[in-house]
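ZP: hey, is the thymidine-5'-diphosphate complex queued? I don't see it on the tracker
AM: it wasn't, my bad. submitting now with these inputs:
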Amino acid sequence: MTFPFNEQPLKKGAFIVFEGLDGSGKGTQIQLLASRLRQENIKVSCSAEPTQSSTGGLIRDVLAGDIKRSPAELGALFLTDRIHHNINSSNGIKMCLENGITVICDRYYYSSFAYQGTECDLEWLMAANLNCPDIIKPDLCIFLDVPPNECSDRISNNRSSKEIFEKSIDTLKAVRSKFFEVFSLLDKSENIAVLNADTPVSELSDKIYEVVKKIL
Ligand code: TYD
């Protein structure tokens, strides 16, 4: 196929998701990766779930324990928020990727499976998210693996109040096992890199960059 004036078709952006327990250092590593890619003139948009939408606000109220919702309701709220995250026309994932912008997202459907999947039907949650035509499959999911006791220490050192999912080491252990259960269920259908993240920040950042370069 030829293009007028030797123009190349716009290369789609890559969709990279970071997952991990609360306190696993996703935020720091996302910022480091974003600035490294930007230095290479790659356009990057960073986002997170829950989003800043009105549904995201409702989710945060539930997570803070200010209002009560059942696990299935919470799973459905995250699903709604995720659809909006994908398709909204101001900074949606779909629009970014189509415009050649790489999206780095702090949490995605893997978190729904690990957190809500411990308390409501995992099969239902997986089908609702994975079969939804408005929810884009990431090109890469990076799971930052930090031992639950280390996460718990970091949470208590860094934050004043805990969310409903951050209460105990046992909860963090259960969520970590659920992540691994889900990763083995997803198996080859998703590109998941599990990285030992109990290492110095710059060492981990180099490892992440190496994994990301393979898909760019
Ligand atoms: P938040 O403090 O916003 O971010 P983080 O801990 O990732 O830095 O917390 C988000 C919380 O939401 C976290 O405890 C995991 C939870 N969560 C779910 O339960 N289901 C989901 O689908 C997502 C995306 C997050």
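AM: back. Strands lie at 15-20, 44-48, 102-106, 140-145, 192-196.
ZP: great, adding it to the tracker
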